[in-house]
User: Fold this.
Amino acid sequence: MVATIVFAGGETGPWAVTRVDAPCGDPLPATPRVSMTTAEPDTPDPVGTWTLRGVVSNLRYATSAERGALGAVQPPLARPAATRAALIPIRKSPAWWDLAQDERRSIFEETSHHTRIGLGYLPAVARRLHHCRDLGGPFDFLTWFEFAPEHEAGFDRLVAALRATREWTYVERECDIRLGRAPAG
Amino acid sequence: MVATIVFAGGETGPWAVTRVDAPCGDPLPATPRVSMTTAEPDTPDPVGTWTLRGVVSNLRYATSAERGALGAVQPPLARPAATRAALIPIRKSPAWWDLAQDERRSIFEETSHHTRIGLGYLPAVARRLHHCRDLGGPFDFLTWFEFAPEHEAGFDRLVAALRATREWTYVERECDIRLGRAPAG
Assistant:
């Protein structure tokens, strides 16, 4: 069973928005706060200016060796020092989704080195990928990242490196919401 | 954007149930009829004893060469002579979904020859695969098949061949609902 996660942008939530960019396509409406919660059956979604749902699902491209390399260094979410976060919703083009599996894999890793680039920023950056294409929303993926303030510049280099790849020529909408953990109270 | 398809088992629908098997795990409740409709936004699901939703999504294992081989011979749905159908919902085990992409691909095709076995029954059998694991229902896939009455014995051989593969050792629930197109009126 997959876990469903709901992101909501609105007036409340533990993450304060520090910056909103839309590198490609329409931006999401700006909100002061963002929340990330696990959806429970028969529980309504949190109220927000926008809500996005995704599922933590199976690997789509990573090989066993790549999973091993990632697993050896990838940190968990919710580290106390990781007080910065980013939510990056992405939609890829119909041309991407029309490709066969080996064609997408080849662009993803052999050409664009998606996993290899990401590995260079571990364990500083924690990441969780949420799939949502099959759910029918406006995006295909919602990726959530957490890192300490001193690693935000490195995170900027990571996303710049990915945006320069051939894989990203298939991205037709991308938002980039930067967040800081809001003071409790 | 993916298309969402809703299957409903109940008292109405254009397909009359002729046989219901559960080769593995719990059966679905028996109903006299089954319908298959495209879900429309803001339209409630059809009423039924059971309803199952799936999406027509991107390829997960097929290579470009395999897609080409399939595309050259696979027939469309709704051929007038194809008055028999089968709906086969399947759920695979957590052990399957925990495998990396290359491990699942290797079992799917290099070991179990899923696509190669299926190709032997084209163009007699039309097929449409619906993904539903990310939707959170009781199954991972809903596969719909259509064929003429004289090809039902061949279809039985096809499903028997697939059930004998290593891939099928990861199947933990499978239903097999056989249908005939009900007389209009």
In short: The radius of gyration of chain B is 16 Å. Chain B is about 25% helix and 35% strand. Residues 73 and 164 of chain B are 24 Å apart (CA to CA).
